[in-house]
Amino acid sequence: MQLQTAKQQKDETPREFLDWCRSLAMKTVPKVEDPLLQKFHYDQAQQMLLSTFIAGLSGNPGHQVRFQMPSTVDLALQIAITVFEAEAQEKRNLAFFFQRLKPQEKVEATLVSPGKPLEDQSMDRLLVLAQTRRM
Prior knowledge:
The protein has 135 residues and is an all-alpha fold. It folds into two domains: 3-86, no CATH class; 101-135, no CATH class. The chain has helices at residues 14-26, 35-56, 59-68, 73-100, 103-109, 123-134. Helix 1 runs antiparallel to helix 2 (35-56) and helix 3 (59-68) packs across helix 4 (73-100).
C-alpha cells in the first residue's frame, strides 16, 4: 500500500496506525551523501507522515484530529489516543451500566433509539432513561 492512500483498519489503534504510516514514510527517504539534502528528505517525509496520518484516521478520533489541525505527528497522536481511549471507557461504562439494570429496564432501555445498536447510543440518554424508570 502507498503512503498517500493509507487508511486506519477497524481493529487498529491510532498508535498502531501511526507506526505503520511511519514505516511507509521512512521508505520514501532516499539515502544521500549531503547531510543538508538528507535532512530535507527526512523533513519532507515527516510532513507526508503527518498528512497521511491525519487523513487516514477513522471514526471520531479522526474527526477530532482533523478539527484541531495539529502541527506535529506527536500532537496528532495525542489527540487521537485521548479520543480513542475516551470512547473505549464510555463503552466499558455502558457495559457496566447494563449489567446493573433489571431485565424489564434492559428491554425499555433498548427502545431509546430503535434500530440503532445499543452500544452506539449516548450514555447520557440511557442514564436519564434509567433514572426516570426508577421514579
